[in-house]
Amino acid sequence: MNTTSPEGGLENGPADTPGRVVLLTTSHRVAPGLLSWAAWQTLHGADRVLCADGAHPQLPYLREAGIAVDEAVPSAEELVDACAGGRTVVVVASGEGEPALTDGLARLAGSGRVRMPELELLPASYDLPGARLLDLVQVMDRIRAECPWSSRQTHTGLAKYGIEEAYELVEAIEAGDREELREELGDVLLQVVFHARIAEEDPETPFSIDDVAGGIVAKLIHRHPHVFGDESAETPEDVKEHWLRTKAEEKRRTSVTEGVPLGQPGLALAAKLVSRARTAGLDVPLPQGEDIGYELLALAARAEAEGVDPETALRAAARAYRDAIRAQEARAAEGA
């Protein structure tokens, strides 16, 4: 087995076989010590285990498992020499990886002057789906603490951005722009995390992003008894019936109109009220009047009956009108 020289370098072993270098990577989003079986086997079987980061979160767990870890920062040449004689050297990578070391190894391999050891990248732990959400929470924590603008924001001050981002998301969906859709979903998600971070600071009724996520998880499970319980649902209509029934039980509402936000766009509000009445089996005649508002209400009711979202339909017509305006402007410019 190789030893460390008094100068801190790695002494050479026999040079008959090139050996093996294993770059061990871990995810900071997974609790330290939760490594794969392949990683533990490689660590226990290695001749040397090196880690340049003395504060690496894995080190206490590796040493607890009886693995000697040297806090060495070898050069590429030293690492190749340390593998001579068929030895295996494991490098526990830092969170940023080991770019200087890997670049050095690449240069040595490209030179053709050195017999290179076998090089292996071994992920020791993997991110679970959704793990990057933890990064977002951490970044938001830091921004809230250190950014002069973000640290002063309130729920009220951010409210308008939530509306704007929601509309931009809808626009991306209707435009069919996948790249824009991904970005706008991120902007909407930011609003959720930002508000949850602000809510943690409330002196009387604080809550966190975990409380938000826990609440929606519990709600989804409760409102999908056909998935998580004993009930059955064969059609989307069955699912909607389950949803409305459990929602009514949760809210204990006395009217189907409760919970319909009056601040939403007028056509959407009208269609929602008509939908609530129809779903509840209420045959409520539309109010009559001379004002254009009543005509719009009738159009919204007609759209809902035909399964058309009136807001979406109006936006599509508005876009067509916008394009017609631009076309006429272009013709006018050409004739000028």
Automatic annotation (TrEMBL):
GO terms for biological process: dATP catabolic process; dGTP catabolic process; dTTP catabolic process; dUTP catabolic process; response to stress; TTP catabolic process; UTP catabolic process. It holds the Pfam family MazG. It comes from the Bacteria. CDD domains: NTP-PPase_MazG_Nterm. GO terms for molecular function: methyltransferase activity; nucleoside triphosphate diphosphatase activity. Residues 153-228 form the NTP pyrophosphohydrolase MazG-like domain. This is Nucleoside triphosphate pyrophosphohydrolase. The lineage of its organism: Bacteria, Bacillati, Actinomycetota, Actinomycetes, Kitasatosporales.
